[in-house]
Design goal:
OB fold (Dihydrolipoamide Acetyltransferase, E2P), seven-stranded mixed beta sheet, Rossmann fold, 459 residues, 9 helices, MeTrfase_TrmA_CS, globular, transferase
């Protein structure tokens, strides 16, 4: 028997009431049980919607006009919010954003992990959810009059939306980008053109230390030569005395990856510094360092609380990066072993340990799923294992290695609720019990949410 046709047609305009939100923040409304996903729609609203795509079991719409407005709808402070792909939620009150993120985690726990009994706390938010990012990497384009422009890409495209300010960036980052763009334009430095693979300046990247106010500027070019580099550096230093480092990165490839392999310090220091809590960090152009230090402190404090360290424990930190979580743990643990696949990150982690005079943290290059079984064979049995994997979650072999080590606690920090729920299911089936999940809003105005949770052996 043939399935009934969808009750809507492409290009049809309909009246729709939104009941829910997707994990990306789109409104969900139903026509005779058939769901339509509509960006910028909010639950409780009724709106005129144009149907733009019809699939067998669901469709997509475009918001034309809101007839009945939610109390949670706010005016986005950014002029290009509806064109730019950087943020998704500026039209939504901050309290609704925090609720949406908690629900996203609860849904993943229920549908993917089958762990609906595990408490998911309210999302830890920011007092001021703007101007929080300490790193900007922004593509450079060229206007018809030859002047340079900078801006993020339009959604699902590589068209640069020309913008002067970004309301989630540290204001200093904004000013630095604007200055580099203005000076480079004045000096006649051409922007890189993706289609022809010609031109020079691809990206401007700025990193700032929130606590120290240090600034590092990274200029990413297609060419090995950066024209007028001395004049550019002189003007920047004159305008901004806080600039500690100007770096040139060469990326000659036709690629979406921002940074190339070759990096040279043109002027100043190889690193800038920042602190999170009592721990100081050296940050290089390629360091993975959390972009929101205010919330990182809250996230790491939670991880430390869940690790429940009393001073005599041995801890393994898988995916340790430049040692950010490891060194937080080392403040309370007897010994911390960090493992990370990126050699440069391990070099930075060792430097950060020396910088903080912490001799109870050791760092190793390699894949955690290979190193940990080797450690176990050497007799290393940790009391606590901490993992903070990339979005794809933990490798199956790593989860097995964690279970084989039988720690008293596992602390899992995650940037993806779906893979977190999947991995927690494996750990639960392996004899551990998930105690609680704490969402933390590291990226206000966007769909992303971080979580920290802990597990103990089932009694």
């Amino acid at each position: 028997m043939a399935k009934p046709k969808p009750p809507v047609q492409k290009n049809e305009t309909i009246k729709l009431t939104f009941e829910d939100l997707t994990h990306e923040g789109s409104g969900v409304g139903k026509v005779d049980g058939y769901p339509l996903f509509v960006p910028y729609g909010l639950p409780g609203e009724t709106a005129q919607v144009k149907v733009v795509k019809v699939k067998k079991n669901f469709g997509f719409g475009k918001l034309l006009e809101v007839d009945k407005t939610s109390e949670d709808r706010v005016e986005p402070p950014c002029d290009v919010f509806y064109q730019c792909g950087g943020c998704q939620l500026q039209h939504m009150s901050y309290s609704m954003q925090l609720d949406m993120k908690r629900n996203q985690v609860k849904n993943a726990m229920k549908k993917i992990g089958h762990l609906e009994h595990v408490p998911v706390h309210e999302t830890i938010g920011m007092d001021d959810p703007w101007r929080y990012r300490n790193k900007i990497q922004i593509p450079v384009g060229q206007k018809e009059d030859g002047q340079l422009m900078t801006g993020f890409y339009q959604k699902r495209s590589h068209n640069i939306i020309d913008m002067d300010t970004c309301v989630i960036q540290d204001e200093m980052n904004d000013r630095m980008v604007e200055s580099v763009r203005r000076i480079a334009s004045h000096l006649g430095i051409d922007a890189y053109d993706e289609e022809s693979h010609r031109g020079v300046l691809r990206h401007i990247m700025v990193r700032t230390g929130q606590a120290t106010k240090d600034i590092m500027i990274i200029l990413v070019t297609r060419t090995k030569k950066l024209p007028h580099k001395d004049e550019l550096i002189d003007e920047l230093r004159e305008t901004f005395p806080n600039v500690k480092s100007v770096v040139h990165n060469v990326n000659p490839n036709k690629t979406n990856i921002i940074l190339g392999k070759e990096t040279t310090v043109l002027w100043g220091d190889e690193y800038i510094y920042d602190t999170i809590g009592d721990v100081k960090f050296m940050i290089s152009p390629k360091s993975f360092y959390q972009v929101n230090p205010t919330q990182t402190k809250k996230l790491y404090d939670q991880a430390l609380q869940y690790a429940d360290l009393r001073g005599g424990e041995t801890v393994i930190d898988a995916y340790c990066g430049i040692g950010t979580i490891s060194l937080f743990l080392a403040q309370k643990a007897k010994k911390v072993y960090g493992v990370e696949i990126v050699p440069e990150a391990v070099t930075d982690a060792k430097k950060n340990a020396r910088l903080n005079k912490m001799d109870n943290a050791e760092f190793y290059v390699g894949q955690a799923e290979e190193i940990m079984p080797w450690w176990r064979n050497q007799g290393l049995l940790p009391d606590v294992i901490v993992v903070d994997p990339p979005r794809k979650g933990c490798d199956e072999e790593l989860l097995k290695a964690m279970l084989d080590m039988e720690p008293e606690r596992i602390v899992y920090v995650s940037c993806n609720p779906s893979t977190l729920a999947r991995d927690l299911r494996v750990l639960e089936d392996g004899g551990y019990e998930t105690k609680v999940v704490q969402p933390v809003d590291m990226f206000p105005q966007t769909e992303h949410v971080e979580c920290v949770t802990y597990l103990t052996p089932k009694s």
